[in-house]
Amino acid sequence: MASSTIYEATCSAPVNIAVIKYWGKRDTSLILPTNDSLSVTLDQDHLRSVTTARADPSFSSPPERLWLNGVEEEIKSQGRMRTCIDEMRKLRKGLEDKDDKLPKLSTYGLRICSENNFPTAAGLASSASGFAALIYTLASLYELQPAVSTSHLSRIARQGSGSACRSLFGGFVAWQGGETTDGSDSLAVEVAPQEHWSELQALICVVSDAKKGTPSTAGMQRTVATSPLLQHRIREVVPARMKDISQAIKARDFNRFAEITMADSNNFHATCLDTSPPIFYMNDVSRAIVQLVEEVNRASEEAGKGKIVAYTYDAGPNAVLYAPKENVSLVLGLIRHYFPNADFDDTFNLLSSGANASHRGANQPASPLPTQEQGLPAGFNSAVIPVHEAGAVRRLIHTQVGDGPRLLARGGADDEVGLLNAEGEPK
Ligand code: DP6
After folding, report:
1. What does the pLDDT average to over 387-414?
2. DSSP 186
3. Ligand 1 contacts CB of residue 21 (under 6 A)
4. 23, 199, 246, 386 - which has most CB atoms within 10 Å?
5. Does residue 12 line the site of ligand 1, with CB under 6 A?
6. ipTM value of the model?
7. 8 A C-beta contact, residue 160 and residue 81
8. CATH topology of domain 7-195+405-409
9. Over the stretch 221-239, which tens digit does the pLDDT of each residue have?
């Protein structure tokens, strides 16, 4: 039987996509990186993890249970999940020690249920939003804020998955790698809030790839162990770029932002190639998207205008394209022309058939090349890449800069948002 008071919180957390990449750890158990990184938080109205956590003294044997996307997961004794839960409990215990009246939630068992609103099959990493949602939900359940800062929480999320620390903030976020051996200075800070540059949007191109690539955790340590180029990246390349891109963001200078973003994606993938044995995350379709972006930017700059769009790639073949809002129609038109039949949920009603209209691949007519009236620069070389076979880009997700984690509900009888039923199991 559960006790009468329900101690529960449900929160959502966003995905973030780095423009200066984290790749390499100097401490693999504390998850301390070899370099700083910087990311853009994406809108959780479109991509998010939602987590419900409940604390109850009746939860026992085992005291903690966890479900991810409907499947129960073991909480391993030395694992990252264990560390995150223990660290959050410690923070709660600290508050309880100072205030006798607080219920001793740190001694209660926990039930945690988490879901992503994007299919893992979409090929998007879910560990960042997942661990950020876990930490923010436990912080809400344990009522840790404002006593504990968001940057402090990011230090704990970091120990779940490095990139997760950046999902604790909205907008533009830096992960300061830090120098101490205990990780106390390795945390996320806000560079600029969402509202600062809300016109920046993202088009995620989910590229078909049957093979499962090298997981990032294993891949990055192979790079640390074998790549001389990574040492140059750590010492020279990233420190300069962190400064430059922060300035570009503050000045809302898309041209400079795009230049640095693309250069850093290419430098990161070069270190993967410099790894022994080499790691290949991008494939032929990824590279064709690079060529297309470079060509439309070249033509635009030749016409005396700035860059149109920037690409960046994580540890997989999917392209994330950043562009100012006014350029996204053109970019979408180009992608839909050269990569026909991608599924597209029209979140911002770009195709004028009703917001959120779903364009399923099979029913789409081939899209014509955008015209100069639609913004295609005059000197654009339309033969830069061939029109690809249908479905080479499987899905397109259009989103924008977003806010940080949100508290959705605090539990109780009328809580329809919570993911746990009365027994503390998934609804
Ligand atoms: C290429 O954060 O997934 O996306 O810390 O081992 O969990 P772990 O790795 P993870 O690595 C992300 C790598 C990246 C670049 C980035 O997000 O900065």
Report:
1. 93
2. -
3. yes
4. 23
5. no
6. 0.99
7. yes
8. Ribosomal Protein S5; domain 2 (3.30.230)
9. 999 999 999 999 999 999 9
Residue 300 has a pLDDT of 98
Structure tokens at 31: 């998850």
Q: In 285-351, at which residue ranges do the beta strands (DSSP E only) sit?
A: 310-312, 319-324, 343-346
Tell me: pLDDT of 70 over 70. Answer: yes
* Contact status, residue 362 vs residue 341, Cβ threshold 8 Å: yes
What one-letter code names the amino acid at 419? L
Ligand 1 pocket check for 315: Cβ under 6 Å: yes
**Residue 364 in contact with ligand 1 by CB distance below 6 A:** no
Residue 30 near ligand 1, beta carbon < 6 Å: no
For ligand 1, atom 5, the nearest C-alpha belongs to 162
- Verify whether ligand 1 is closer than 6 Å to residue 208 (CB atom): no
Which atom of ligand 1 is found nearest the CA of 158?
A: 5
| Structure-token pair, residue 53 | 């956590």
264 lines ligand 1 (CB under 6 A): no
Atom of ligand 1 nearest to the CA of 21: 18
Calculated CA dihedral for residues 255, 257, 259, 263, nearest 10 degrees: -170
> Where do the domains of the chain lie?
7-195+405-409, 200-400
Is residue 216 lining ligand 1, measured as CB closer than 6 Å? yes
**Average confidence (pLDDT) over 93-97:** 98
22 Cα–ligand 1 center, Å: 6
Contacts of residue 393, Cβ cutoff 8 Å, sequence gap at least 6: 205, 206, 207, 208, 285, 289, 335, 339, 342
Return the CATH number of 200-400, one of 3.30.70.890, 1.25.40.10, 3.40.1080.10, 3.30.530.20: 3.30.70.890
Ligand 1 atom with minimal separation from the 128 CA: 2
Using left for φ > 0, alpha for ψ between -120 and 50, and beta otherwise, residue 24 falls in left
Please indicate whether residue 405, judged by its CB atom, sits closer than 6 Å to ligand 1.
Answer: no
* Mean pLDDT calculated for residue range 265-273: 98
Rg (CA), the chain: 22
Q: What angle do CA 228, 320, 31 make, to 5 degrees?
A: 50
Where are the alpha helices (H) located in 104-233, listed in sequence order?
127-141, 150-158, 216-226, 228-232
CB neighbours of residue 74 within 10 Å: 10
